[in-house]
Specification:
233 residues, alpha/beta, Arc Repressor Mutant, subunit A, 2 domains, five-stranded parallel beta sheet, four-stranded antiparallel beta sheet, 12 strands, elongated
Length: 233
């Protein structure tokens, strides 16, 4: 999210009336809201819209909010605020253990919801702002200013596109980055289906930084989804 972009909030809740109420309240605060009624639609919209924050109801038809939270945490570190109808704290503990950042108990006031969302967005923005030009992921070091890469303290020459791809993967180390996200950020928004470019450059990178490109341990394929950079130990 750029400094002038509207924060994009994905609300996953099967109560359509509640989604619309949240949409209206957050629109007044300059936020864009995308609504989903179930887990399947929510996950699809997550990949399509790349939101800045997810508001996630626990009680969803079919796949529940716990499973959605688990799947989101496999691929993203974005803030997740969970909605629960319980007040005994069990949902809070379980949600935090599964990677949720905060929770609000139903029924809730819109003022409280807005405040929690704004606090999570500020926290996420501070985290992004403190990222150094230097990235260290296991034995791989990247300098974003000089565009230099080293593996085990040995310099590795890369082409500009190879560097951009590796830098994006390392900046998202531990997260599975979807194909379309990599294409959009490395090649541009007009590249949405050209996965052949991506697979070719992944192969180039593996030949540069892997001891055995045929059995990579740093750049791992998640079939049908994307690639994950795993810091070597």
């Amino acid at each position: 999210m750029g400094p002038t972009d509207k924060p994009k909030i994905l609300v996953i809740d099967d109560e359509q009336a509640l989604v619309e109420i949240i949409r209206e309240a957050l629109n007044e605060e300059g936020m864009e809201v995308v609504g989903a009624r179930d887990a399947e639609e929510g996950l699809r919209l997550f990949y399509q819209t790349q939101p800045d924050l997810v508001v996630l109801d626990i009680m969803l038809p079919g796949c529940d909010g716990w499973e959605v939270c688990r799947r989101l945490r496999q691929v993203s570190n974005l803030p997740i605020l969970m909605l629960t109808a319980k007040t005994d704290g069990t949902d809070l503990v379980r949600g935090l253990n599964m990677g949720a950042d905060d929770y609000v108990t139903k029924p809730f006031s819109l003022e409280v919801l807005r405040a929690r969302i704004e606090a999570l967005l500020r926290r996420a923005a501070r985290t992004r702002a403190t990222i150094s030009r230097m990235f260290q992921a296991g034995d791989v070091s990247i300098d974003l200013l000089t565009r230099e890469v080293s593996v085990r303290s040995h310099a590795v020459p890369l082409t500009p596109k190879e560097f951009d791809l590796l830098a994006y993967l390392v900046r998202n180390a531990g997260r599975t980055v979807p194909h379309q996200e990599l294409l959009r950020h490395v090649w541009g928004p007009e590249y949405r289906t050209e996965t052949q470019y991506l697979s070719l450059y992944i192969w180039y990178l593996r030949n540069r930084i892997e001891e055995n490109p045929h059995r990579p341990r740093r750049i791992v394929t998640w079939r049908g989804l994307g690639y994950r950079f795993v810091p070597a130990v």
